[in-house]
Amino acid sequence: MMEERRLGIIVSGSLTKGVEARLDSAMSIEDIAVGRYVTIEGEKRRFFGMITDVTLDASDPRLMTAPPDVSDPFIAEVLSGTSTFGRLHVLPSLTIGGDALSLLEGPQPMKTVPTHFSVVREASEQDVARVFGLVEEKQFYIGTPLDMETKVRLNPAELVKRSNGIFGKSGTGKTFLARLILIGIMQEGAAVNLVFDMHSEYGWEGTSEEGRKVKALKQLFPSKVAVFALDEEGARRRKVSTDFVVEIGYDEIEPEDIAMLRETLTLTDAAVQATYRLARRFGERKWLESFLALESREEINELAQSLGEHEATMAALHRRLDSLRRLRFLVPQARDNAIQRILEYLDRGINVVLEFGRYTDYTAYILVANLLTRRIHAQYRERMERAMGEDIAKPRPLVISIEEAHRFLSHELAGQTIFGTIAREMRKYNVTLLVIDQRPSGIDEEVMSQLGTKITCLLDNERDIDSVLTGVSGKSELKAVLAKLDTKQQALIFGHAVPMPVVVRTREYGSPQSYKELGFREALELKKQAEEDKDLWG
Amino acid sequence: MPAKIGEVIQASTGEFTAQCYELHQPPPFGSLVKIREGEVEIYAVVSGAATTSIEPGRRPIARGREETEEEAIYRSSPQLAKLLRTDFTATVVGHQKGAGGGENKKGEGLHHYLPPRPARIHSFVYLCDPEEVAAFSQSLDFLSILVGAGSQADELIAASLRHAAAAHQDPRDFLIKAGKELAVLLGSETNRLNNILRRIKG
Ligand SMILES: Nc1ncnc2c1ncn2[C@@H]1O[C@H](COP(=O)(O)OP(=O)(O)OP(=O)(O)O)[C@@H](O)[C@H]1O
Ligand SMILES: [Mg+2]
User: The complex's ipTM?
Assistant: First the structure.
């Protein structure tokens, strides 16, 4: 095995804070990047870790106050690496190899640190493969570590056991990452997906920054994906092949659904309470229609009086709810039951993307996502409970993806929304979340701490960085790494589904080659395959 | 074996003095010389030279007032050369065991620290050829001896490095390596380091 490039030797450190290595004088500090992997050859074992910081240092502080004549290239070269030198901060996470036993056991969590003067080298492709697992053909991988070719596996089956999060500021690649992960989950059959696609970029096609169109799930895997549209017209205009047009009847909207709109509809607490009274008065299924049917101020006032509400409150509530009428998918009576349809597809293992089309406002998104998820979750829950009692098949694991997750999972809402419940109950009822958000600090802390694996692109707001890294060991080190990610297509992944934090360059998405690698087959190719099969089987 | 250039007249473990066979022809300051001591070859760096009267009490007197050129002084008094002597001192920087007996592979048995015994009086002193200089200076451990070699240590280090560099394929590369070694050895003595580096940067 070829020795990898030697970087330096360990000079100090601790288990909790990581170790310091002195860079060899032959190495230029400018060749070192945070986020890269190194191995450390301790006396008894090899350690595997990530460079999390680089520092310049001098053996003698006087050197800095009276710098030698470094304009002379000779003197500069002599001093670099000796009197002045670079230091690497390495966060070791695992021990690998060393002896036969550890080879058998595979990478193990670290319980100690390498001795003084242990040699630090760049990690080899094999080392990385040993840590993240060899990626077999057809197995899903998320990308490659910085400056390496080895594929980093993200095991969909592991991933869907918990709720997960994808974070990063706007334009860093969250949506691209999410599409990749959804494909991974689909291809390996780890779970079935329901995606609330606010900006209509998961179902049929999305766009890249350069304005190029990229294929989305349905185009790539037509037999595994169904597109549900809220905006039929828009979908037709965009030539999306739609499987189902969603309508939601007034009768399906419960006071709980309105409570979630408190912020977007600027409802007072009193107004929210009033909806419950209305439901009691008119019945769960009739209240909204009956309330909206009131036309004159007198009728509303009369109702207010009879319910013991303030007239002004009722009038305001009426105005706000009346504004929902502009959502054309809301109808007094839906032609078909969207929830039932979604569940049917999911039961058949077909992934459902719900496109919002032109309804890109939060009111529509929050209303629909909450309403559908509540009902679907209730069904899952019931079926799981039955399955446990009666020894029948459990429903397929379901992953629900939401963008702009802080709108559902803010500190104020997390206690009440269905999404908060799902995040907290783990996968008790076989439902988990994939939350996608650019402002993680807006998400409830408890929910954040329940996320099994976090995949985060560049974040530059201090509070966002803090919230993503809360409770992670090596937090301050990872912070430095996170803040230094590229502005696109790079992500720090940590948590359950990976053995240690990893910075990846996200695999490319959008080229014909990338589709192919993800398992997409052109129609022509499929036909040919079918014919070949026919030849073979007669 | 290269030609001998002188003979040891005073010796200690870390240093010796030799008298040159040729008046006014000491080996250059900083050059590498060697002595055989039984099975051991002792390497040393020339650390100074002096020409004096052979009789300690008697000092030469000026003789050239009537002459137009210096050489004429020696021509008109040929006995003068017999009354003067050139001595040089050398700092021992290493030794090689098992030398002499048969072919010794390059660098084998070479130690960059002091030999077990000093040189014997009247040992012959040889000037090392470039090949030997290159072989000896493969390791820069001898610098740690020179660093502590008294008041002229820095001059001596610079001279010996310049000398050794000339024997290497890539002199600049050699000097950079040596410079780095010195930077480590001298640690916080930044001034000394700077002085030496200025003297070897060429
Ligand atoms: N894996 C990838 N392959 C190819 N291009 C990528 C990849 N990841 C990101 N990009 C590029 O970066 C751009 C932004 O990515 P994306 O739309 O996923 O960002 P985002 O984080 O979802 O942004 P927003 O918060 O605005 O929704 C893409 O349009 C694409 O050009
Ligand atoms: Mg996006």
Answer: 0.78
